[in-house]
Amino acid sequence: SNSGGTNFGTTWIPASYNDSTWSSGTGLFGYETTPSEYPYPFNTYVPPPNTNGGKITVYYRTHFQWNGGLTNFALLSTNYIDDGAVYYLNGSQVGSLRMTAPVTYNTLAGNQPNEGLAELLSFATNSLVTGDNVMAVEVHQTATSSSDDVFGMLLSALQTSTNIIDRKSVV
User: Fold this and answer.
1) Phi, psi (5° rounding) for residue 5?
2) Predicted TM-score of the model (pTM)
3) What is the DSSP string of 58-120?
4) Which of 18, 24, 29 is CA-nearest to residue 54?
């Protein structure tokens, strides 16, 4: 993650971006004034905007391997976000929560109405590649006075299939 206050524009989005100097940790990321609202603990502190060092936008990136081979599948993202986010898979925007385009570093998010509840998004699969993939997410707050900053995400591949039973009558 990168919460240092640097406006990276769009340079950080492509899979080829070198994020090796960024901080690492485990989710949930951030800080919540009432953490009991969330079903998971906060494992990596990220200061909220109203705290010294806190910013309205925080960048996250993770690499994951995809072996391919699935058909009839969807990418399903389970999210804990306070307040808004934009999601990129290998450089292509695949989703957003409470963000109005165009999004820049200083864009404020819409208000998160149900803190602590999982939000589901379905992502397009056409930018997924066999091998190394990068999910990049920018999390935005509603105001510079926001007292919390939350990010947690689980990405799943969900395969669907239909079993057809062909019944033949024997007379």
Assistant:
1) 90, 10
2) 0.90
3) EEEEEEEEE-----SEEEEEEEEEESEEEEEETTEEEEEES--SSP-TTPPPPP-SSTT--EE
4) 29
- Token readout for 58 is 């925080």
C-alpha count within 13 angstroms, C-beta hemisphere, residue 12: 24
- Residue that is written with structure tokens 């707050």 in the block: 141
Q: Tokens 């385009």 identify what position? A: 101
Count of helices and strands (H, E) across the chain: 0, 8
pLDDT digits (tens, 9 = 90+) for 54-86: 899 999 999 999 987 778 888 999 999 999 999
- In this structure, the number of other CB atoms found within 10 A of the CB of residue 16 comes to 8
CB contact at 8 A, 82 and 32: yes
Q: How far is CA 48 from the centre of its chain?
A: 17
pLDDT at 170: 57
Integer CA distances (angstroms), 10 to 126, 141, 168, in order: 20, 18, 59
- Cβ–Cβ < 8 Å for 140, 49: no
Provide mean pLDDT across the span 114-133.
Answer: 93
- According to DSSP, the residues that pair with 131 across neighbouring strands are 66
**HSE-CB of 3 using CA atoms within 13 angstroms:** 25
